[in-house]
Design brief:
alpha+beta, Alpha-D-Glucose-1,6-Bisphosphate, Chain A, domain 3, two-stranded antiparallel sheet, two-stranded parallel ribbon, 3 helices, 36% helix, 23% strand, globular
Length: 109
């Protein structure tokens, strides 16, 4: 396995995908597997530093119904597993901010 050190600030500049309080924001075409993996890994490392989680625990991941979601979820799951966590898939749902609620497709729980 090749380990690559990435500076998140440099990755943000190059990709033009920002990361802030509401997560990653940018054009989906710029959210490459490298960007999604690095941001996920960086977030997990931060949570470890502040003692919010430890390798071996389960990390829940979920997505929405956009076409890019499946690829992004696979990349996030790889980062979670590579960091030593188990992945808990919560599925995909449509989140409507206007309606203030969530609608799960196919009667999902």
């Amino acid at each position: 396995m090749t380990v690559k050190t990435i500076q998140i600030a440099e990755l943000m500049r190059q990709s033009q995908v920002e990361f802030g309080t509401s997560g990653a924001r940018g054009l989906v075409t710029r959210m490459t597997d490298e960007v999604c993996y690095a941001y996920s890994l960086g977030f997990l490392q931060y949570l470890e530093q502040v003692s919010e989680c430890r390798p071996g625990e389960a990390i829940a991941i979920a997505g929405d119904l956009r076409p890019s979601t499946e690829r992004i979820l696979k990349t996030v799951a790889a980062a979670v597993a590579d960091q030593g966590y188990s992945v808990q898939h919560e599925g995909r749902e449509f989140i409507s901010r206007r309606a203030g609620g969530r609608v799960r497709p196919h009667g999902g729980g």
